[in-house]
């Protein structure tokens, strides 16, 4: 806290000087705050532009990645591929049991046996195509972990940039409010006022008055005592004072 004071015989003049100095300080600090806020706002807006550009670039990369590999969500794609592979493997197991059972009752490679073998090969071929990404627009199963990692990394970087961008926006809004005068560095708590004049004399004047009064009373008492002694020593005056003739 800063206290500004000035003493002068003219109390109104002293009050005006103090208030003028206070006003000048308030104006100067307002200029300093404005310059500082402008500089900070410029820095923040520049950072916002950079972060916004990075965020847009990452979002474009995510869209390009999803379009290239035909996956919006790796987990959903992986779940679907694993489900299809599991179904084919289940059919393959059943087909192998059928082939084994058929071979026990017939030693001849007849059309029935050949059909079962061909069906088994078809199932194996379907599984192979799924694993190698040759079915529809699905990526190869073996590439799913890598794709999931890459997509997760891109999304995580985009999330970080988004959080940083929101923080910068909040800072810029705070600086706007400060620039409008809601957070000045220099705040005047109270301006100076002219001191009230005392109704009676000051203590110094009272001391002088009492001193002079005592001095005059002392002189008066000395003269009075001297006059009394003169009367007392004069018989004629004493008779007159007593009323004697």
From TrEMBL:
Name the InterPro entries for this protein.
Answer: Bact_polysacc_biosynth/exp, GNVR
Q: Which Pfam families match?
A: GNVR
State the organism of origin. Thiospirochaeta perfilievii
**Protein name (record):** Tyrosine-protein kinase G-rich domain-containing protein
Query: Is this entry keyworded Electron transport?
Result: no
Keywords (alphabetical) are: Coiled coil, Membrane, Transmembrane, Transmembrane helix
- Coiled-coil spans are 41-98
Question: Which N-terminal stretch is annotated as signal sequence?
Answer: none
Phylogenetic classification of the source organism: Bacteria, Pseudomonadati, Spirochaetota, Spirochaetia, Spirochaetales
Tyrosine-protein kinase G-rich domain residues: 152-227
Q: Where are the transmembrane segments?
A: 206-224
């Amino acid at each position: 806290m800063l206290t500004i004071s000035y003493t002068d015989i003219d109390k109104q003049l002293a009050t005006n000087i103090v208030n003028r100095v206070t006003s000048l300080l308030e104006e100067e600090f307002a200029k300093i705050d404005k310059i500082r806020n402008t500089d900070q706002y410029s820095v923040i807006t520049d950072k916002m532009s950079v972060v916004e550009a990075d965020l847009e670039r990452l979002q474009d990369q995510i869209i390009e990645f999803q379009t290239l590999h035909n996956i919006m969500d790796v987990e959903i794609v992986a779940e679907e591929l694993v489900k299809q592979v599991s179904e084919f493997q289940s059919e393959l197991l059943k087909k192998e049991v059928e082939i084994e059972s058929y071979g026990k009752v017939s030693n001849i490679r007849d059309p029935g046996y050949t059909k079962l073998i061909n069906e088994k090969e078809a199932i194996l071929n379907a599984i192979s195509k799924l694993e190698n990404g040759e079915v529809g627009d699905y990526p190869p199963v073996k590439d799913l972990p890598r794709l999931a990692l890459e997509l997760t990394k891109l999304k995580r970087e985009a999330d970080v940039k988004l959080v940083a961008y929101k923080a910068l926006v909040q800072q810029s809004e705070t600086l706007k409010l400060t620039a409008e005068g809601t957070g000045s560095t220099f705040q005047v708590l109270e301006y100076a006022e002219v001191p009230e004049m005392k109704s009676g004399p000051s203590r110094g004047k009272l001391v002088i008055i009492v001193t002079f009064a005592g001095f005059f009373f002392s002189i008066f008492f000395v003269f009075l005592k001297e006059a009394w002694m003169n009367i007392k020593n004069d018989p004629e005056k004493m008779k007159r004072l007593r009323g004697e003739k």
